[in-house]
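Q: What would this complex look like in 3D?
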Amino acid sequence: MSVALDPGPETTAPLAPVSPHRLVDLVFRVREFGIIAVLLLLVVVTASIQPRFLSLQELQFILLDTTVFALLAIGETMVVLTRNVDLSVGSVLGLAAYVSANQFGTHPGTSIGVVFLVGAGIGLACGITNGLLTTIGRVPSLVVTLATLYIIRGIDTWLVGGGEVVANSLPNAFLHIPRATIAGIPVLAIVVALGVAAAAYYLHSFRSGRELYAIGSNPDAAQLAGIPIGRRVFTVFVVSGTLAGIAGVLWAARYGTIDSTAGTGYELTVITAVVVGGVAIFGGSGSVVGAALGALLLNTINSALYVLGISAFWDQAIAGLLLITAITIDQMIKVQLTAALRRRSRLGA
Amino acid sequence: MASESIGGNEAGAADAESPAQLPVLSLQHATKAFGAIHALEDVSIDLYPGEVHALVGENGAGKSTMVKIFAGVYPPDSGRLLIDGAEVALSGPADARDAGIAVIYQEPTLFPDLTVVENIFIGRQPLRSGRRIDADAMHAQAESIFERLGVRLDLDRIALGLSIAEQQLVEIAKALSLDARVVVMDEPTAALSAFEVDRLFQVAAALRESGVAVLFISHRLEEVFVLCQRVTVLRDGRLVLTRELTVLQPDDLVRAMVGRDLPERVTAEHTVGQTVLAVDRLSREGVFLDVSFQVRAGEIVALAGLVGSGRSEVARAIFGIDPYDAGSVTVAGERLRRASPTAAMAAGVGLVPEDRRQQGLVMGSSIVRNIALASLKRLSRLGFIRGSMERRFAADWAVKLQIRFGHLSNPISSLSGGNQQKVVLAKWLGRHPTLLIVDEPTRGIDVATKAEVHRLLDELAGEGVAILMISSELPEVLRVADRILVMREGRLVKEFVHTEASEETVVAAATGQVKAAAA
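A: Here is my prediction, written as structure tokens for the whole assembly.
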């Protein structure tokens, strides 16, 4: 790091190929490093007070809790990158969790694969609705997804009625999905990590992935550059919805008991994770890896507080604090970065 | 086709000798009107590969309209656009781009979060297997483009923080990556430093040598003579001349750009009183520098200059809308607090802003409300506005200024532009200002109302109000002002008493043709 911070001889030579990108890289790596550092600190401090925190079971719980949020964070990151937001993911998760898990009760013998398809299908339908209203209806996504948040939750409540799906109506194979491990690591966590890696690769290496950044960075310029903004934005909402549907099935398998409140408020947690993870709330920059790390951090805090016997109230307060800290740091970095880049420009001129 | 005669050639001399090739881009007899205003009338221009062609004219001469036709922003109402001799219809910016026309605007819009390379290739990145972006090929292409341009730019930095000059270079690189054969530069040098201008000239020369046709628009005539081979002059939407620059002098261009009959002066000689406004060494970094002048009671002083020369910014700083870094503003002997419109208003300053719809009027509100807006304190008792007083006040001013209205309670949007402007004036006159700043008082107003506004300003000056007027319309400036201050690139460069000012001298000072100004 000290090497990168060294301004080097370039700063004095006019028109030299200065490399602020190193600075930029550093800043983004620092963001991910920063989260990892905070995570490690949290784990060390918590474990020194309550060694139980480092038990295999506790760590597995943290990873499993994170999988659901990390999955949602992939979709949410793609939406936020385009200067949009998807507030409906919590409701979509709840509806998909109930309807998919309920298949085992209403259609005994349904295969787990079909149940996953049902969950994904519900998410897909919700995503298409959000996408169409945003792109063709030209309604701001904040309003569209706030409305679908309520509507989908309403449908969920109506379907559930007074009842709920309970664990003993679910097949054991289904409930065992989250419990499968390889070398102590939950298989689900590995699968979701691979999903995060695939999404990161897509966003980095494909035209359409880069175009998501372009749309969020400067919508007018994106239009002039001939980027199919409508199609891209529609697609990210479909992806976000579908992932929320799949996350719903996983949620059902993880908790076993599903009533009409499943996933309530998750949208805010996911957006917090995305922003804490370094995705700019007005689009244009950030990564899914950062967002997934943000989700991991939030869940680790949650578990640490639980292990330490601190009230869950603090969980939300800390999440809020973290959010403000992250945004403040972002803003400070941005101001510094802009100034640094300007300086270099001036020297180049 | 290329040697077709060009209308409006005042000297009647032979048109520019057309280079032997076919013009790569040719606009023929193009007309474009916005409502009743003819932005372009029967204008033709040919651009040849390997030449830099200058397009000059005063503000509002039609240059921007021509650029927008080339950019595919809008089609001409009549006339033809030919590329390589074949007629084309551009239905949007993407069409123009595909046809090989690239437009570099004064302030390009890039993606601030993406790198320079990505900004050049977004949506068109070279691909490798599996439709993945080939980052290496993309880099190599970008490098070879910048090599061709002869400039170095860090390709991997994000565009955030690039200077305007560098942003233009990125746009030019994008144009080359698209194999653009026509590059239109719309006042690219306006925001550049001398060093950056030099670099841009090298780039433009490199483009020319590689066979690109460059259309170069600039207010700085010296640049035109340095860089360009041929020039086209527009005036009031019409083509004045197209000619080789080697046979022209700067004075010829200034004459061609202005070329109108001198307007008749309508104002009487004003009796000038004490100094009302004293601006001393006012500076704002990057906007205006070391501006000092006075306006006395009963005097109309015009701030002339090209758009972007800093005129409006000075006015905004005087009124306290924008802050300034150094200097002082004194009104009637009292130094005004910096950046405080409230202080300016309390000192008796009124501002009629440039954009009356956005800044001067409450569009949804009635005529009465708008006239009374700046005088509400006088029109209220115990904090409540007295409706009857408000109406009487408004009616009074409406009659005085001869505002043509249906009913005073009608919305302000029911009035014509000229009458809306009178409402803005009435709003400030109701406060009996000692200093009135009017920014483009007659923009978009019909001729008859324009004359009334001029007469009104004249009367106000006669009553002892000090008036600072900003106007891009030279005839207006010459007709109304007692003194003319010319700004160029943020500095006050010349002062004229109206008797010694002419369109030629003012334009020469505003465009930096000092030699002509001395003549």
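A: To summarize the key features: The interface with chain B takes residues 15-21, 24, 205-207, 210-211, 213-214, 216-218, 220-222, 224-227, 280, 284-285, 337-342, 344-346, 348-349 of chain A (CB under 8 Å). Chain A has 14 helices and two strands.
Q: Very helpful, thank you.
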